[in-house]
Amino acid sequence: MSGKRASVFDAESDLDLSGFSPKEALTPMVPPEQVRAISETAKFQSREPPREIAAERPKREPRRYRTGRNIQLNIKARADAIEAFYAIADQQGWVLGETFERAVAALQREISATA
User: Fold this and answer.
1) Residue 89 has what pLDDT?
2) Are 48 and 40 within 8 A, CB to CB?
């Protein structure tokens, strides 16, 4: 090997590329069912929720309201707490932002009453 790099812009390059060729095809694709069977026998924990759990949760209708609230808050919570939050909003006819604001106000009242 020479200690000099080949120039990309050199028109008089004697760079020999004849040793390069396309790679051979990889092994044929394994059917997903076979992969699933092998991973289950190896006790691999799948990240996908079980089909019965995913199927029992109904999809919610999209909520789009113009309320002037423009800051987003993303939180992680348990599924039962989220369902309860949505149920309260639906029962009262509130948008989610209003439900959150009322919950914060109620917590503030509760904390100030105990102090």
Assistant:
1) 94
2) no
- Cite the DSSP H helix spans in the chain: 32-41, 51-56, 79-92, 96-114
Taking the C-alpha atoms of residue 99 and residue 77, their distance in angstroms, rounded to an integer, is 16
pLDDT band for position 13 (cuts 50, 70, 90): low
Domain ranges of the chain: 32-61+73-114
Structure tokens of 90?
Answer: 């639906």
pLDDT digits (tens, 9 = 90+) for 48-95: 777 766 566 677 777 777 778 888 889 999 999 999 999 999 999 999
> Residue for token digits 């008089």?
12
Smallest Cα–Cα separation from 101: which of 69, 74, 75?
69
Whole-model pTM?
Answer: 0.45
Cβ-based neighbours of 54, under 8 Å, separated by 6 or more: 48
Distances (CA, A) of 74 to 12, 71, 77: 59, 10, 10
